[in-house]
Amino acid sequence: MPIVLCSMNEEIRKRWQDLVAEENVLHASTVAELKRLATGNDISLILLHRAMVTIEIMAQIRQKVPLCRIFLLSDRPDEEEGIAYLKQGIVGYANTYISPARLGEAIRVVLSGSVWVGQAIMQRLIRETVAMASVHTKLSPLRLEALTPREHEIAEMVSKGQSNLEIAYNLNISERTVKAHLSSIYAKTGAGNRLNLALIVNQGTSG
Fold first, then answer.
1. What's the rounded mean pLDDT across residues 132-148?
2. Where are the domains of the chain?
3. At what angle do helices 79-86 and 119-131 cross, to 10 degrees?
4. Structure pTM?
């Protein structure tokens, strides 16, 4: 399935195409063209330049093509903007000039069904998720019973919005060790990312 690159700036579209390891790529230079391509093709992903849209236009795009994955790239990304567009259903948010390696990783993540955002936004999403919980929750044995005691500890810290660096400091281990534990936790729980893990941890024993 094709990937659509949408920006008024031809140089930006060319840069993205050079970074995308995908032969089947379509280009759109207007929102109208994007809507036409997205409704006329089975699209796997849209890389969309933030300069092309407002919140209102994004809502229109989501209504027109509700099943399309949209990755928004902003010249000046910030937390407020990222959170606002995530609430409109985008699956990724990053800098327009993201490095080749990071863009490749980001595309793999979102195509696998997960969400790609910066660490600061992810931690805020986790904190807001926890804050919205109406009752005190505990680790769900249905999803987390396979974790080791240390993995349980790290999962709880992630659910409270702690970064890898904070976890490493609090547990007196290396950040690399934290990442290794998280890889194991994701594999055992099927969480795939920090936000999903936080939701699992905070969903209660009925989850």
1. 61
2. 3-117, 124-201
3. 60
4. 0.67
